[in-house]
Amino acid sequence: MAGVAKKIKRRVLFLLASFTLLFFLLTVRLFQIQIVNGAEYQQKAIEQWTRDVPIPSKRGIIYDRNGKELATNAPAYEIYVRPVEVTDKESVAQTLSEVLKMDKETLMNKVSANKDTVIIKKKVDSDTVKILREKNIKGLIFVDDSKRFYPQSNFASYVLGFTNYDNQGQDGVEATFEKYLNGFPGRDIKMTDAQGRELPESDRKYYEPQDGLNLILTIDEVIQHFAEKAVENALVENKAKRVTAIVMEPKTGDILAMAIKPDYDNNNPREVPEDLIDQWDSMSSTEQYNALFKIWRNPAISDTYEPGSTFKTITAAAGLEEGVVKPDDKFYCSGSVVVAGRRLKCWRSYNPHGSESFAEGVQNSCNPVFIEVAQRLGKEKFYKYIQAFGFGSPTNIKLLGEASGIVRNVNSIGPVELANISFGQGITVTPIQLITAVSAIVNDGYLMEPRIAKKLVDNEGNTVHEFQPRVVRQVISKETSATMRQILESVVTEGSGGGAYIPGYKVGGKTGTAQKAENGRYVPGKYVSSFVGFAPANDPKVVVLVVIDEPGGASYYGGVIATPVVKSIISDTLRYLDVKPQYTEEEAKKLAKEKVTVPEIRNMKLKDAIKLLEQNKLKYRLEEEQGEPEQDSLVLDQTPRANAKVNEGTVVIIYAKPKE
């Protein structure tokens, strides 16, 4: 018995020692967990309990100068998943793959992740979310969001730019004003149990997102429409590579319109170009990006070209300001001039201009006249004005990718180079530089910084910041500016810019045609045709520059193909701005002669009525809402009425009896 008792005693002591050691070890472990590593485990526990869902902010809206929306936000959603709540992960991944058009394996990794909440997809449209809601998939979370939307697709695409997948601006004003437009996201933080249910009496925190500021541009939607319509027509009619138009308010530097064709759809900027569809998949990602970047690049501020004769406005203004030439000074054009042993031709060398005044030289765009003016100035003085007008430096317009142009160092300029620059060769400019400089010439000499944005406002309409017009410098005097306006007006009334003439309005301007240079040589058959015009010439409200790159039609002269485009934009714009026409006596007489009387055509046969209208130099349109009439149908009514005085070419609406 004694042996058994000892054996039991040893076992009891062993168990006691074991439990004592185990208790000691547990105590040490608890001490380590609660005291030594307590903060770390507490943080991990909080992370497991906490559901932190970001609340996206709404991007600021972009308006034109009159409050019309150019870029806004469309409803969208962000979709998250809580993997712990997903029971049949295979089935859920398959469903999400079919609805969201995403890779199933990627989705499988998301729904199986060892995380509380995982993002599935952003910028999902309402219809797709509706489908997923109807499937009642447990573990999915839908968070209200928005995606950028451009109501008019490719309207003013190079001004507006576009955003990426995360609603961040990538180009245009979307990029340059990103920090103002983007806003700050909010957060919804709450404590949940393992089933995702909010813990009672937990400390929930909701941080309201701060929406971005709204941006008001200087662009006028109506004038932008005028410019885009004119540019589109010019692109087609002249079979051109590209057409660019800028409309500027000279007194403020405000960009009222900037239209470039071809362009791209802001809602789908990464659409594969048609000419690259067949080879797109075989291209590297770098090659694909470079191809898209060529489309996104804004030619109005990024492309440089030799301005040709439009640059003669700079030479003329500098010569007049320095007093080396006067409007009535006499020159003689023999068709060419020899400079440092090299013969430089006038564009009309086959039929020289002969004796002409300086003003006539500008009208005729005569190269020898401008060569002599530059020689009188000397390269140092001439360069002073080139730089003062802003060439060789960015204009500081608030758009990405602005180029400086190429202005050679003055020390490398010899007599031939000086002569070439005087008529716009051997120097490259951007369209925005040229229109800014010409605006200064007609704006009493004041060079304005181009302004694309007017102000930033909050959602209540309060102005947060205003971008004021900025005078860079005064380059020429008011007197020289006034003289230049008169001379440039005569270019339209008597010279090469006649295609821009608008009855009732004083229009001034200068044509330009320049051969394109590639790899240091001029390329036969490739030209840049341009015209810069302004009106009214006595008090300019708008300056318009049109540049036609590589026209492929019957003509490539700026005076032939660019002037009608500028005329269209100026004419539409002045009438929209309610600038009343002021006809000269000669114009009034001409317009009066063009008035015709509408004949009585009611109760006539349709074919006879049409013939009578055409005889009276009137057009017609059939009103066919009730059915198509026959040629022998009777005319029931007409608009305008008989005996009304109208202009030639007025459309008379005919209401004829329909077929029975």
TrEMBL record:
Stretch forming the signal peptide: none
GO molecular function terms noted in the UniProt entry: penicillin binding
Location of this chain's protein in the cell: Membrane
GO terms under biological process: cell wall organization
UniProt-recorded name of the protein: Stage V sporulation protein D (Sporulation-specific penicillin-binding protein)
Gene3D superfamilies for the chain: 3.30.10.20, DD-peptidase/beta-lactamase superfamily (3.40.710.10), Penicillin-binding protein 2a (Domain 2) (3.90.1310.10)
Annotated InterPro entries: Beta-lactam/transpept, Beta-lactam/transpept-like, PASTA_dom, PBP_dimer, PBP_dimer_sf, PCN-bd_Tpept, SpoVD_pbp
Domain PASTA: 592-658
Pfam families registered for this protein in UniProt: PASTA, PBP_dimer, Transpeptidase
